C-alpha cells in the first residue's frame, strides 16, 4: 500500500494550485531556475514532468545523499512557488516514507546483513510453496481424479490439529502461485541471486535497451553552454551556465524549453528528462512507470533544435525484458494501482496466517518433553523419476540462488548429522524417546 500512502502523506507537495490568478504554467526553464536557487551548488540531474494537477520535480545530484538518491525540489508550475524540498529514490521515484518502507522490505533496516537475510527468506519461499503443494497432493487418496484431489487440498473442516493443518494447506494451495511469483520477482534485485540473474539476462540478450544520446555530426568535444555562438551552442538561447557547476552544453533556458517541447510531442506524462553528462550528447527522456501503463517509451532530443534524434518504444524491447518490467511493477504494486496493492496486502496477510498455523501445527504435533515429532524417512534409497527431476531442478536453482544453495546444504548436513547421532545412541543402548528428549 506504500504508493497510495505516499500520495496521501505528500499530497500538498505533489499537487499544483492552478487558479484564475495563474491560469497558465510557467516555462519549465523558469521552474528549473527557481529550484536552482535553492541548491546553487548542486548539479542538475533531471526534470520530472507530472500529469495535469501535479508539481514539477527538479532533481539534483547531492554527494551527501546515499546511492541512487537525488535531491528533489517540487515546483508549482502555475505559481512558480517551491512546494517542497525532499529526496527521491531509485527508478520508482520513491519519496522518503516509501523509501523507508522499501528499505525495510529489502533489508529489514539492517544494512547488507539484513539484505542477505531477506534474500534467504525470498529464495526459500517459492521452494517451500512448491514443496508444500506436492506433499499435500500426494496425501490425497490414491486413485482419485484430479478434481477430487484438488477439492481435498482445499478442505478446511475438522477439529483440533486436523482443522489447523487443512486450513494451512488450503491457504497454501490458493496462494502458491503468488508465493512463487514473489520469489521469482523479488530475487531479481537481491544481492547475490540478483547479480546472477542480471548476468543470465545479459547473456541471453534479455536486458532493457536504451536510447542513443549521440548527436549527429558531433565530433570531439562540443562547445560548452557559455559558447553560445559556436556549433550547437549557437541555438542555446539565454545562457544559464550559472545554474550548474558543470559546463556541459545544453543546460541553458532555451535548450531546456526546446527539449521539453520536443519530448511532449512524442511522449506521455509523467516523464523524466535527463540532461547530457558530456558534450556532444542529447537529452534522454523516458516515460515514467505509472499505474495501468504497460509501456514506457523513450526518446533522445537534440537540445539545440528540439528534434528527436533517437526513439525506443517498449514494444521493441525483447519480450523477456518487457515481462521483467511488468512483473517487477506488479511486485511493487504499481502496475495496476490500488487493486494491485490490495491483492498484495491480502497475499501478505495469507502468508502471516500460514506462518502462525505452521507453528501451531508443530506445537500440537510434538509429544511431551520433546521438541518435535520424529522425522519421517525420505526414502532416498528408492528415488523415482520425479525425485531425480526435482533434485536436478534444486541444483540448478541453488547455483542461480547461492544463498538458497548454501543454506540447503547446511540444512541437509545438520539433518544427516542429527540422524546419525540418534542411530549411534540407539546402538549403544541409550534410552531415547521417539522425538528425542530435550535437555533437562
UniProtKB/TrEMBL annotation:
InterPro entries: PepSY-ass_TM (IPR005625). Keywords: Membrane, Transmembrane, Transmembrane helix. The lineage of its organism: Bacteria, Bacillati, Actinomycetota, Actinomycetes, Mycobacteriales. This is Membrane protein. It comes from Corynebacterium variabile. It comes from the Bacteria. The keyword Phosphoprotein does not apply. The keyword Secreted does not apply. The chain crosses the membrane at residues 116-137, 169-189, 342-364, 385-418. Residues 143-163, 210-247 are annotated as: Disordered.
Amino acid at each position: 500500500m506504500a504508493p497510495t500512502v505516499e500520495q496521501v502523506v505528500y499530497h500538498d507537495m505533489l499537487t499544483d494550485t492552478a487558479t484564475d490568478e495563474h491560469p497558465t504554467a510557467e516555462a519549465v526553464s523558469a521552474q528549473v531556475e527557481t529550484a536552482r536557487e535553492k541548491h546553487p551548488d548542486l548539479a542538475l540531474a533531471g526534470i520530472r514532468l507530472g500529469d495535469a494537477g501535479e508539481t514539477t520535480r527538479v532533481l539534483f545530484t547531492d554527494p551527501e545523499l546515499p546511492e541512487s538518491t537525488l535531491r528533489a525540489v517540487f515546483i508549482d508550475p502555475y505559481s512558480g512557488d517551491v512546494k517542497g524540498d525532499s529526496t527521491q529514490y531509485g527508478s520508482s521515484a520513491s519519496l522518503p516514507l516509501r523509501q523507508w518502507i522499501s528499505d525495510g522490505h529489502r533489508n529489514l533496516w539492517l544494512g547488507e546483513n539484513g539484505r542477505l537475510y531477506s534474500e534467504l527468506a525470498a529464495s526459500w519461499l517459492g521452494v517451500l510453496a512448491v514443496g508444500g503443494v506436492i506433499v499435500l497432493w500426494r496425501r490425497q487418496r490414491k486413485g482419485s481424479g484430479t478434481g477430487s484431489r484438488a477439492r481435498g487440498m482445499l478442505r478446511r473442516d475438522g477439529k483440533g490439529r486436523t482443522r489447523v493443518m487443512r486450513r494451512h494447506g488450503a491457504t497454501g494451495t490458493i496462494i502458491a502461485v503468488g508465493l512463487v511469483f514473489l520469489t521469482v520477482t523479488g530475487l531479481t534485485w537481491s544481492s547475490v541471486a540478483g547479480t546472477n540473474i542480471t548476468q543470465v539476462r545479459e547473456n541471453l540478450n534479455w536486458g532493457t535497451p536504451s536510447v542513443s544520446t549521440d548527436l549527429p555530426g558531433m565530433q570531439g568535444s562540443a562547445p560548452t553552454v557559455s559558447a553560445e555562438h559556436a556549433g550547437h551552442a549557437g541555438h542555446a538561447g539565454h545562457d544559464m551556465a550559472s545554474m550548474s557547476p558543470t559546463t556541459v552544453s545544453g543546460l541553458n533556458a532555451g535548450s531546456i524549453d526546446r527539449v521539453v517541447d520536443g519530448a511532449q510531442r512524442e511522449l506521455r506524462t509523467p516523464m523524466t528528462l535527463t540532461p547530457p553528462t558530456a558534450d556532444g550528447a542529447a537529452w534522454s527522456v523516458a516515460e515514467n512507470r505509472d499505474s495501468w501503463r504497460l509501456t514506457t517509451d523513450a526518446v533522445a532530443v537534440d537540445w539545440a533544435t528540439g528534434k528527436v534524434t533517437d526513439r525506443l518504444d517498449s514494444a521493441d524491447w525483447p519480450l523477456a525484458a518487457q515481462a521483467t518490467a511488468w512483473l517487477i511493477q506488479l511486485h511493487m504494486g504499481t502496475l495496476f494501482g490500488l487493486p494491485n496493492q490490495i491483492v498484495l496486502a491480502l497475499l501478505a496477510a495469507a502468508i502471516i496466517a500460514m506462518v502462525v498455523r505452521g507453528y501451531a501445527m508443530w506445537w500440537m504435533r510434538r509429544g511431551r518433553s520433546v521438541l518435535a515429532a520424529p522425522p519421517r524417512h525420505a526414502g532416498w534409497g528408492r528415488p523415482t523419476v520425479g525425485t531425480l527431476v526435482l533434485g536436478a531442478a534444486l541444483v540448478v536453482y541453488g547455483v542461480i540462488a547461492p544463498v538458497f544453495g548454501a543454506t540447503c546444504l547446511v540444512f541437509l548436513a545438520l539433518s544427516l548429522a542429527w540422524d546419525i547421532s540418534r542411530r549411534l545412541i540407539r546402538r549403544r543402548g541409550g534410552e531415547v524417546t521417539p522425538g528425542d528428549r530435550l535437555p533437562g
